[in-house]
Amino acid sequence: MPLLPYTYRPSVIIRTKALRRGIFGPSVFWKLVAGVVFGRSTVKKLFGKNEQVLERATLKGGGRLMQIETFKAPSRRQRRKAARTTAS
Question: DSSP states of 27-81 as a string?
């Protein structure tokens, strides 16, 4: 099944109408739609990544210890520095 051209995709049409009729126009309904469409991505940016469950384990008996560590995500400065060194 071929993809629709970009301008005919439903999500693009909804965003365009929300901008023209809601934010730049008088329609209250389309202002609400714009708030939902553009607010969703803003909320994701503000609250960051979700936690991921790697494994669930049940420890039985005494004297057992489980330690789980994850790698910290590199900062923006570290990512740029790594990209510069690999590109050279």
Answer: -HHHHHHHHHHHHHHHHHHHH-PPP---------SSS-------PPPPPHHHHHH
